[in-house]
């Protein structure tokens, strides 16, 4: 049986993440991990906070906190939010961990021994006013590619192009606004990716199941013009460079951050070293299938730079089998932005509504093939239609009827006819389709088929109308409808785990992981006659116009055609 190693892009610790971050990697990774566990697969779901680099230094300075104290606070904050969103990490680590320090330095030494590290003098931006070098996001200016005036020194948020600070036009210091910047020489280390192009291209040729745009992005980087990557920075916060003459420098965040996946697995194993071996997951193994979930801006680092580190080490590290990339979620026609506090952030979302409402909409509208726009009106309409009118209505009607008519028990007796057996075949086909789309990482289609299963069950209940049938017919159709409710909740568990658990709890099931249905005719039609069904009240309350106005007021979506 294969083992599934699942990682989500580790989020920066420089503030609470917005819904775009959530749907771009964290949430779909959780949905797949939950689904795989339902199948009985062995799963290890790893994530953590990215705690190095200029974004963290700048955020700590803005919060007037020492960097370590800031990271401690924000790591705990993010971990709590993700727990309340139902993200089922097996371990949520930190890139500042001792394990990551040791592993990052280990990889550097292996790459150096292989002749893949080179010292070079490079021109770095120096601020006379600040009295220091300004790497990466410490420099802001105009993008040479799209002319955005707020491009950062590592990447333009407007067009996504990767940059170096000297590339910017009319640069200024992000600390002081100083524009009298100079270029000075500084000694740095480079990973010679250009020497690995053919190995990387051959490796990429063995990968299957990548979304076309992810594969295209990866191939666009693997050309003869692939640039060697500077892997050190003139910063004090980060993983020290163990090399003479580099005592005042640290490794570039994008060198050590992906290694944190391995380090977090090591930390996970240390919690129970008798039963866990982290090497079983990360050393090359035919039984491990490794899937990464990423936003499209992270693809180059995970499809080129991280594999270059692993392959260049000369050691048998497990490389990714599938990169599931996502486009961007926009907000009312504009971009979500952590730095500009634009959009709906995960902590505020949970203050307003239960997690499963957000989870459902985001997965059902996941930006898999193109960008997706989020608006309050669309969110409310979809949640009311899918969760309240279809799934919630199905659950409420049959549980109330069974409670009133059959003393709250699954009724026994009655004979199944050809119509019921036809229904069983349709339900089995729907369950098979849901499973197939989950296995293919097609989240929107999996959601659509899940909703179609709910509609099928609703249609059956409406046509059967047990409340107006004779006793024998009411007995049969009620039992089938109750079984369909259980199947509907089980099939939806990976997307809406809390609502699923409430429904399954009514049937006395409190398993953390409801196993995937076997899809037999007996399971679909025949249930546990005599089993007591507990009342649960209304499953999902519809959102009102007043709710919509309140959400628009709080999150600034008053005019969906205007920028905030």
Short description:
45% of the residues lie in helices and 14% in strands. With 564 residues, the chain is an alpha/beta fold. It starts with a strand and ends in a 9-residue tail after the last helix.
What does this protein structure show overall?
It is a single chain. This protein is α/β, with parallel strands linked by helices. A 5-stranded parallel β-sheet has the order 3-2-1-13-14, sandwiched between helices. Mean pLDDT is 93; it is low at 558-564. The chain folds into 3 domains: 3-108 and 253-373, 3-Layer(aba) Sandwich (Rossmann fold), CATH 3.40.50; 117-195 and 204-233, Methionyl-trna Synthetase, domain 2; 376-525, Isoleucyl-tRNA Synthetase, Domain 1 (Orthogonal Bundle), CATH 1.10.730. The chain is elongated, with a radius of gyration of 26 Å. Helix content is 45%, strand content 14%. It has helices at 19-38, 54-62, 67-84, 98-113, 197-204, 212-221, 253-256, 259-270, 279-282, 299-312, 346-352, 355-364, 376-405, 418-439, 443-464, 471-492, 497-506, 521-525, 545-555, and strands at 3-8, 42-49, 91-94, 117-127, 132-133, 139-142, 151-152, 169-173, 182-191, 229-230, 232-233, 250-251, 288-295, 322-326, 329-331, 334-335, 372-374.
Give the radius of gyration. 26 Å
Q: Major β-sheet, in short? A: 5 strands, parallel
Q: What is the CATH topology descriptor of the largest domain?
A: Rossmann fold
Question: In CATH's first tier, which class of the largest domain applies?
Answer: Alpha Beta
The spatial strand order of the largest sheet comes to: 3-2-1-13-14
| CATH architecture classification name of the largest domain | 3-Layer(aba) Sandwich
Assembly status: single chain
Q: What is the count of DSSP helices, taking H or I runs of 4+ residues?
A: 19
What is the overall pLDDT average?
A: 93
- Shape assignment: elongated
What structural category characterises the helix and strand content? alpha/beta
Strand coverage percent: 5-15%
Uncertain residue segments: 558-564
End-to-end distance: 50 Å
Into which percent range does the helicity of residues fall? 40-55%
């Amino acid at each position: 049986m294969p083992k599934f190693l699942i990682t989500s892009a580790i989020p920066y610790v420089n503030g609470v993440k917005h819904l775009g971050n959530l749907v771009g990697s964290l949430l779909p990774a959780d949905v797949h991990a939950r689904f795989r566990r339902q199948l009985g697969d062995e799963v290890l779901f790893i994530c953590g906070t990215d705690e190095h680099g200029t974004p963290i230094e700048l955020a700590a300075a803005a919060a007037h906190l020492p960097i370590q104290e800031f990271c401690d606070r924000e790591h705990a904050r993010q971990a709590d939010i993700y727990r309340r969103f139902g993200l089922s990490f097996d371990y949520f680590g930190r890139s500042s961990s001792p394990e990551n320090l040791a592993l990052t330095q280990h990889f550097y030494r292996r790459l150096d021994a292989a002749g893949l590290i080179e010292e070079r003098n490079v021109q770095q931006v120096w601020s006379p006013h600040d009295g220091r070098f300004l790497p990466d996001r410490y420099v802001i200016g105009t993008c040479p590619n799209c002319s955005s005036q707020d491009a950062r020194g590592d990447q333009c948020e407007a067009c996504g192009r990767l940059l170096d600070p000297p590339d910017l036009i009319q640069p200024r210091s992000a600390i002081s606004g100083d524009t009298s910047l100079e270029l000075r020489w500084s000694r740095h280390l480079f990973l010679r990716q250009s020497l690995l192009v053919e190995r990387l291209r051959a490796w990429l040729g063995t990968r299957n199941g990548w979304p076309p745009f992810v594969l295209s992005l990866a191939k666009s980087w693997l050309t003869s013009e692939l640039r060697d990557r500077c892997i050190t920075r003139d910063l004090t916060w980060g993983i020290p460079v163990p090399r003479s003459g580099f005592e005042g420098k640290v490794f570039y965040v994008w060198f050590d951050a992906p290694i944190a996946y391995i380090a977090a697995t090591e930390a996970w194993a240390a919690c129970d070293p008798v039963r866990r071996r982290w090497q079983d997951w990360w050393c090359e193994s035919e039984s491990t299938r490794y899937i990464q979930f990423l936003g499209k801006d992270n693809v180059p680092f995970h499809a080129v730079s991280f594999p270059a580190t692993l392959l260049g080490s000369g050691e048998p590290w497990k490389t990714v089998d599938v990169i599931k990339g996502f486009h961007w979620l926009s907000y009312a026609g504009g971009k979500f932005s952590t730095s500009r506090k634009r959009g709906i952030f995960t902590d505020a979302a949970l203050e307003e509504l239960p997690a499963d409402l957000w989870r459902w909409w985001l997965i059902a509208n996941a930006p898999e093939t193109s960008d997706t726009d989020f608006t309050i009106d669309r969110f409310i309409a979809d949640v009311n239609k899918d969760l309240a009118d279809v799934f919630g209505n199905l659950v409420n009607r049959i549980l109330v009827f069974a409670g009133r008519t059959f003393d709250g028990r699954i009724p026994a007796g009655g004979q199944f006819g050809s119509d019921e057996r036809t229904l069983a075949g349709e339900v089995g086909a729907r369950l098979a389709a849901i499973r197939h789309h989950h296995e293919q990482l097609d989240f929107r289609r999996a959601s659509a088929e899940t909703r179609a299963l709910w509609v099928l069950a609703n249609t059956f209940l409406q046509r059967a109308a047990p409340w107006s049938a004779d006793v024998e017919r009411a007995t049969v159709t009620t039992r089938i409808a109750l079984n369909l409710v259980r199947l509907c909740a089980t099939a939806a568990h990976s997307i809406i785990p809390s609502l699923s658990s409430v429904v399954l709890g009514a049937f006395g099931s409190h398993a953390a992981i409801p196993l995937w249905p076997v899809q037999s005719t007996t399971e679909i039609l025949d249930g546990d006659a005599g089993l007591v069904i507990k009342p649960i009240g209304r499953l999902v309350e519809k959102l009102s116009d007043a709710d919509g106005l309140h959400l628009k007021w709080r999150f600034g979506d008053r005019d969906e055609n205007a920028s905030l």
